[in-house]
C-alpha cells in the first residue's frame, strides 16, 4: 500500500514538474528538414515580399513520425538580432523561449510534400531571421523540430526590412514645405530691408 502511494505521488510530482517546466529545446530531436526561399543574406521587405517554406520528415532519421499530429512553422530571431534584447532571449524551456515569436503557418502534420507561401506581415520588426518548424504530439507538446540554419544559428540567415512609416509623397511634401519656408523667409527679409531703407530716406 505504501509503495502504491509512493508511485502515485511520484507520478503526480513528475506531471507537476512537467507542466511547470515544460518541454526543453535540448530534448528535441531534429527530425524535420526545413527550407525557405530567401537566399543567405537576402533582404526582404515586410508587407511586400513573400517567403516560401517547405518541410518534410527526414527519411534518414532512425525513427518514426507516428507521434506527430500538428506542425507549426515559425519565423525566428537570429543571435545577432537578440543581443541586448531580453524580450528576444533564447531559453531552453520552450514555454519561456522568445526566439520564435512569429507564426508563419500551423496545420495538421504530413510527412512530405509540404509547402506554404507567406507574405511577410507589416508588423514584423527589422532583424535577421531564420525559419524553424515544430512538430507537436497529441498532447500539443513539442515533439521534434527542424530549421533552415545550423545548430549555432549562423548559416542561411536573411534580413527583414521593416516598414518605416515614411512614403515618397510625404517626403516630397516635406521638401516642398521646407523650400516654401526658406523662400518666405527670404521674401520677408527683403520686404523688411526695403521698408527700413524707405524710412531712412524720409
UniProtKB/TrEMBL annotation:
Source species, domain of life: Eukaryota
InterPro entries the UniProt entry points to: Transptr_NO3_Nar2
Keyword Iron: no
Cellular component terms (Gene Ontology): plasma membrane
Entry keyword set: Cell membrane, Membrane, Nitrate assimilation, Signal, Transmembrane, Transmembrane helix
TM stretches of this protein: 172-191
N-terminal signal peptide: 1-22
Gene Ontology MF term list: nitrate transmembrane transporter activity
Keyword Plastid among UniProt keywords: no
Similarity field: Belongs to the NAR2 family.
Function: Involved in nitrate transport.
Protein name, entry field: High-affinity nitrate transporter
Organism: Nyssa sinensis
Amino acid at each position: 500500500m505504501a509503495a502504491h502511494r509512493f508511485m502515485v505521488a511520484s507520478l503526480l510530482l513528475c506531471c507537476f514538474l512537467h507542466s511547470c517546466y515544460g518541454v526543453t529545446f535540448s530534448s528535441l530531436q531534429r527530425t524535420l528538414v526545413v527550407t525557405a526561399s530567401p537566399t543567405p543574406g537576402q533582404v526582404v521587405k515586410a508587407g511586400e515580399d513573400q517567403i516560401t517554406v517547405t518541410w518534410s520528415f527526414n527519411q534518414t532519421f532512425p525513427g518514426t513520425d507516428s507521434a506527430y499530429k500538428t506542425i507549426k512553422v515559425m519565423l525566428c530571431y537570429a543571435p545577432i538580432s537578440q543581443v541586448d534584447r531580453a524580450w528576444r532571449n533564447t531559453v531552453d524551456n520552450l514555454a519561456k523561449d522568445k526566439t520564435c515569436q512569429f507564426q508563419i503557418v500551423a496545420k495538421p502534420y504530413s510527412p512530405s510534400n509540404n509547402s506554404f507561401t507567406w507574405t511577410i506581415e507589416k508588423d514584423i520588426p527589422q532583424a535577421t531571421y531564420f525559419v524553424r518548424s515544430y512538430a507537436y504530439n497529441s498532447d500539443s507538446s513539442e515533439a521534434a523540430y527542424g530549421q533552415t540554419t545550423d545548430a549555432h544559428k549562423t548559416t542561411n540567415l536573411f534580413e527583414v526590412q521593416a516598414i518605416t512609416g515614411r512614403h515618397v509623397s510625404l517626403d516630397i511634401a516635406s521638401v516642398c514645405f521646407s523650400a516654401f519656408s526658406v523662400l518666405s523667409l527670404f521674401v520677408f527679409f527683403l520686404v523688411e530691408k526695403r521698408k527700413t531703407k524707405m524710412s531712412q530716406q524720409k
